[in-house]
## 1
Amino acid sequence: MSNHVLPVPVPELVEGELVEGASTSSANGGLVGGEPASDPFAPHGPGRARTEADLHDLAAQGAERFADANTAGRDPETVALLAWASQTFGTSIAVACSMAGDTVVAHLAAQASPGVDVLFLQTGYHFPETIGTRDALAATIDAHVIDVLPRQSVAEQDATHGPKLHDRDPSLCCALRKTEPINRELASYEAWITGLRREDSPLRAATALVEWDAVHAMVKINPIATWTFDQLADYAGRHAVPINLLLGEGYPSIGCAPCTRPVAPGEDPRAGRWAGLAKTECGLHVAPTSKDA
Ligand code: SF4
């Protein structure tokens, strides 16, 4: 993917380098993630009313209903998919957002499900631009943007495992700062919405619009799976959705700062993630998902 100049409003940058634990506001006035809480690690979802078998059936129904939907830049079909998700799962659905270009998904989901929970993995290692995008999104859409926190701060992890664990054992670092926190949160919802796109990587090339997530035992909805980056940028521009400044500066895939570098024009979009290592995914989306759902 070539580098893009994005015709969209951009968030203000947060001063400083890496930002950790900032408060997050939402358009409907709530404060989530930064407010005092008796248990900062308590999941935010309402819990699951359906059995795993019921959820599996719903995934199969959704997969069949939307199997031939072409959501690629076609807003009505994307809206129909998210309306089905909202009607089916009510408040037991969450959006996972990395605050890159997937803010478009949160924007779409908030229209179908006002007040929807938007989960942001606050690893403590994000670029200031990512934090700025989070804050701009929270001020723009009707949603609860939630900082999902690891059990340990960066300083606490450094004390336990030594500094810069991401350089020595990135899989353990991702497990502690991404996989465990998102698994903890997702267990309190019946379905989640992601910003996965097929063009992101070969591992994501077969991403379905609706699928069964066997690892989390829940329904997984990928409304922009068929979108190209240009379609995503076009939607963001038309609807004034804040997206990450770094997307226009050679970062087509944005994760934690220590593990992300810019890529050259034409280079694999995810080549800048964990560069030099075999690792290409943090573990959130690599788990096998049943294709029969
Ligand atoms: Fe740690 Fe890097 Fe994974 Fe972030 S992307 S959790 S810094 S290993």
## 2
Amino acid sequence: MKKILNYIHGKTSALSKNELAVEDPSTGEEIAKVILSSKEDFKSVLNSSKKSQLEWANTTPLKRSRILSNYKILIEENIDELAKIVSIEHGKTLDDARGSVTRGLEVVEFACGIPHLLKGEFSQNVGANIDSWSIRQPLGICAGITPFNFPAMVPMWMYPIAIACGNSFILKPSEKDPSCSIRLAELFTEAGLPNGVFNVIQGDKEVVDLILESKDISSISFVGSTPVAKYIYEKSAINGKRVQALGGAKNHLVVMPDANLNQAVDGIIGAGYGSAGERCMAISVAVAVGEIADELVNKVQLKAQKLKVAPWTDSESDMGPVISKDHKEKIENYIAVGINEGATLIEDGRNYNIQGYENGYFIGPTLFDNVTKEMTIYKEEIFGPVVCVVRAKDYDEALKLVNEHAYGNGTSIYTSDGEISRHFSTNCQIGMVGINVPIPVPMAFHSFGGWKQSLFGDHSMHGTEGVKFFTKLKTITSRWPKSIQSGPEFVIPTN
Ligand code: NAD
């Protein structure tokens, strides 16, 4: 049986004897065991990070950038292998997995520009013969805790920028699909990264708590569900750490009566059912405005029926299984609750059997109509292939739905009206907004992050927000001896 270990100081290791099964979601079979790290493993990772950090911080940004450039090339050369590792343990289609690695790679590309990004600011003569400048310095040891749904991309939102800024980084990946993190770390070593600058520690809540309590770790980057994000945020703050904690989502796609309907339907299908709905930017609510609702529901239903649900090994698969037996049962339970609460079940993805994969965690595309804002399936994140259609009489009602929802990750509007789209993008209480774009995930050189219950902390991930998060600001004010006036000053200097 394959064992997935830690990656500490340039090699794999494990001290703990505790393990957890890693499954193939397409078959339900155990395919590996991942170690659940102990206090001793954590000590070892911390020692390694401490040993490497100062020297790395003193390595010039240009040298750091060159190692990142090597890393970029190695990821490109190994992208098929990385995508396959993601698909095997997560279950998503190979093309989707490859796309997600590419989105991570783009953050590495962005981080290659670190000499430019760290240039700082300078003002001459802030006072007579006095100059002042601001620089950004590394935090020290940074840590990241990541979810199962993007085992390459989400860690890569964090560590390339943290490391480019001169920090060392400890990654605690999801215990459900942990292999990709090890391969990503090996490739970084191959690219020339000194040992200990990027370490991976496997485990669950036990090791997360050790990270949060450690006095040696300066910052926490977290992505996962909202209850855990809130816990991470609070516990990190109590322990004096800088924290960015991204949580769950319930993303609405508003379809206006003047929308290009076929485009909107394609948007809902791809964003609702792609990756079996297990994306934080998945569309889980379609808001049909006015008379368009019946036609929209019919068209989404027809397309949903044609989707091919199959394991990643089938190159024609549109969506694979969900991550685990527990998660499958949780989603099926939500579907039952939706029916009980009075929503109209148009497509039922339960009892979805694929010959040869009877024990896999497959759920077919599921579609509810006439969902209302009081229903559980509207309020809570389901994180599966379930799309809820809510009918709104007009634009104002649709905007109110978006704004009153507890989550604020992403949203999208489909319309041909520039004025409406401008009003929507200005007034919606959401972090990432699409106009005729179903999944408005910002590129690496912009920043990713939601509002409300979807993000706790001040900074989004990657882009210039990432650089700010992973560095401390220092401002220096300088005057040389010859220009010093005689005598002490008792009044605050002004110009
Ligand atoms: P999760 O919250 O269960 O786990 C995330 C990480 O936290 C894992 O590494 C896990 O080991 C750890 N963890 C779990 N429970 C913990 C606890 N009680 N104490 C400390 N650590 C704990 O999330 P998941 O199921 O892996 O991922 C799915 C969730 O992530 C969804 O809610 C999805 O919306 C969210 N997500 C959000 C974004 C975003 O950008 N906002 C992106 C991807 C996923």
